[in-house]
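user:
I keep going back and forth on a fold encoding question. Separate attempts, laid side by side, tell us more than any discussion would. Would you put together a sequence-and-structure record for a protein of your own picking? Write it directly below this note and I will take it from there.

assistant:
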Amino acid sequence: MVAGGWRLTMGVAVLVTGGLIAPAAVQAEEGCRWVMTNLPVPAGQYSLGPLGGDGDWLTSTSGLGTVVVWHQEVPRTVTFPADRAAFDINRNGVLLSAGEDGLWRGEEKLEELPGRSSTVHSINTAGDVVGTSGGALVMWPAGSATPHVLEGTDDGEWWLGGIDDAGNVFGGFRREAPQRYYVWNREGARTELPPLQGHYQAFATSIRDGRVYGASAVKGDYLGTSVEWNLRGEIVRTMPGRAVLASNDAGDQLSYWESGIGVRRANGRFDPLPNGVAFPSVLSESGDVFGGRYWEGPVKLRCA
């Protein structure tokens, strides 16, 4: 499930061939000794990061005809019948893909709104899918291949953030300055996510269990103060550091920090990731981080 952070299609090119290198230990600035290993890739395949998934299931865009999927870090190659790219994978291993033969939730083809260009973005554990269609935000509920437009987005130019396992969705409107961000609950009702009092703008970056994470900033500040909203659009807390990219059930958060990106643990400790070695995109339930490296492919970072 992609609930924010980097997308698989951000264009960070990471090339890898089969094989597993020996673990490399990287000492972070405080509190954590990161042990880094390359994820194995099937012989003859390559992987383009960042990754999507939850750590148990992972995928990354390989090419328009094939994709590498990992389950418990064991890889396999999925070959599509036509040119297609992978966008996400959920906790049940259902792969979300799109290409010249349409939009696909696993082996199920999803319908598209007539006369609009559509694509998929994220899938949750239940199988709810969100994407865009002609600039609007759309959802394909689990068990249905028919899309419906999210409230208030049929005027185009919308940016989609992600969906959580409860079916809550967040996104933003591109045309306004500053951009405005919203959350839609399972019933489709839309609520704005405002900044802190006296701040110029807010931006949402991830969602989990009805908690929307992001940042609130004064004008000219592009990192801001880390905040959490509830589904009523209320800021319920501010946190050390900057915007949250991903979180897990234990309360750990992959987030921006003044010195870079790291994991803020539920106990308050911050473990900065080593600079320049990974593009982190997935935080697993065990607290491991998965991402990619230039030229060396997908990696796992474990805090020893």
Confidence is low (pLDDT under 50) at residues 6-29. The two ends are 26 Å apart (CA to CA). The longest strand covers residues 201-208.
